[in-house]
Automatic annotation (TrEMBL), chains A, B:
GO terms for biological process: pantothenate biosynthetic process. Signal peptide: none annotated. It comes from the Eukaryota. Belongs to the pantothenate synthetase family. One of its GO terms (molecular function) is ATP binding. NCBIfam families: cyt_tran_rel, panC. It is an enzyme of class 6 (ligase). Keywords: ATP-binding, Cytoplasm, Ligase, Nucleotide-binding, Pantothenate biosynthesis. It holds the Pfam family Pantoate_ligase. This is Pantoate--beta-alanine ligase.
Length: 303, 303
């Protein structure tokens, strides 16, 4: 297995230039957007991307645009050198890690002065963009899909996700991008955004990857104590029970949801939501008679 | 002067394919988005685009996404064959006219059925997307700049403009796009969107073009009777007076605005708004001591 170090690019213009150069050479580019602190779930996304593109760009960027002030932006785990190390072990390797410092820093603002007698452009450094209302103010909204599930308790979350993904698509200009279905609503939102805004990017969903004991892999799992982690297995266990109950003919969603919520409660967790929704429009269904997905978010540990 | 007919492309995929082929050959592409019924103002945008790109795409599409139900979508003037004729007379010509039928028709929806035993994708024709909430629902909002001026009386207008321009950028993938400063707020919004979403497109503003008598060229001028048209000259006349008053030291915006509003009233027009705003953030200023622009919208004729 060849081990090679990915090229690390931090600048937007440099990133786009790399992509355009590669595309001009006929290469296709696959993008895997991440917030770092990589685990096997991310690696599976990268392997999936390898199936669809010649070159792989992994972005590592904790996007402040999707965190509310009361959320865990400051404690989001990170380990950049560990991430690079993990990426070097991916079969086929990763070509570029795009690791921008701040995607919302637009630095110098061009101020155009209009005057018929003297028309000129002058550059001007604006020390604080917000003072003159020159800060970031453009947001992509996927207006229905963003509302339910995670969007209920995190009202600006998907606005931030859709916007940063649009930015990454415009900077990296990939042919293909891979997202995990662990974040099912996010995956549906990105697909819808790509369709509605006609991005020339193919979006691929990759399956959730679980630890051996059944816990869905997630960077935030690091916050769980061994005991909390053990309790959190109630999510997978109860979901599996609900799935097999549905397979045996229990199609009433209320009954299935109660099974899961009760199991999470009994394990000492707090359910943010537990809903059975249509796979495409994410609307809650009462009885299963079309493709659905059971979406659960729950807190274990400090909450 | 070479006279050549532009290639007419109606499909999104065909359009993108053309652009990518040309770019792979090292050509740069300039886009001039229009709603058709072209006049010399549009032609000046195309000439400007010619200064910045090897190949020119003019899009002709009346975007329903920016019209409210009570607005003039159904009466917006159109003359496609006349437009093509005009484009043939542009020095250097136009390479492609992108003329889609409906940019919001996503046709067949891919429905993915999730099942661990039987994972497959199946295609399904959805006759009415709205029924299953599968219609267009992604919108780009430039949240501050969209609010004032035209945005006050047309609350969804700039949401629609920003969204369709994002779509056109993603379909045509131009290097450069030219917008008229006649629609000053639109121009600022598009520039901000491009900066904030990191589109790899350079946005160029082209000056307003006036008829010999001073009326700003606009496709909607066709709705004016000769008498109404004559009255509408009050806009340019009073703006010129305000400009020269400012040049002579009258920097109080209230005084300058009153001059213009009064002149429009006296000519029998109805002012939608008349504001002197900062050129960059479009906020109203009370006294002129930085680069400003005087923005006016007024109705003449039926209102």
């Amino acid at each position: 297995m060849a081990i090679r170090e990915p090229e690390i690019i931090t600048g937007k213009e440099e990133m786009r230039k790399w992509s355009r150069t590669m595309r001009a050479e006929g290469k296709t580019i696959g993008l895997v957007p991440t917030m770092g602190y990589l685990h096997q779930g991310h690696i599976s996304l990268i392997k999936e991307a390898r199936n669809h593109a010649d070159l792989i760009v992994v972005s590592i960027y904790v996007n402040p645009g999707q965190f509310s002030p009361n959320e865990d932006l400051s404690t989001y785990p990170s380990d950049f050198s560990g991430d690079i190390h993990k990426l070097m072990s991916v079969p086929g390797g990763v070509d570029v890690v795009f690791h921008p410092h701040n995607l919302y820093d637009y630095g110098k603002i061009e101020v155009e002065v209009e005057d018929e007698r003297e028309r000129r452009e002058k550059g001007q450094v604006v020390s604080c963009l917000e003072e003159r209302r020159l800060g970031h103010e453009t947001w992509v909204r996927v207006e229905n899909l963003e509302k339910g599930l995670c969007g209920k308790s995190r009202p600006i979350f998907f606005r931030g996700v859709a916007t940063v993904v649009a930015k990454l698509f415009n900077i990296v200009e990939p042919d293909v991008a891979v997202f995990g279905k662990k974040d099912y609503q996010q995956w549906r939102i990105i697909r819808r955004m790509v369709r509605d805004l006609d991005f020339g990017v193919k979006v691929i969903g990759a399956d959730l990857v679980r630890e051996d004991d059944g816990l869905a892999m997630s960077s935030r799992n690091v916050h769980l104590s061994p005991e909390e982690r053990n309790k959190a297995l109630a999510v997978y266990r109860s979901l599996s029970q609900a799935k097999s109950a549905a397979g045996n003919g229990q199609l009433n969603c209320r009954v299935l949801i109660d099974m899961v919520v009760q199991a999470i409660n009994e394990a000492g967790g707090k359910t943010d939501y537990a809903e059975i929704v249509d796979q495409e429009n994410l609307e809650a269904v009462e009885e299963i008679n079309s493709p659905v997905v059971f979406c659960v978010a729950a807190w274990f540990g400090k909450f």
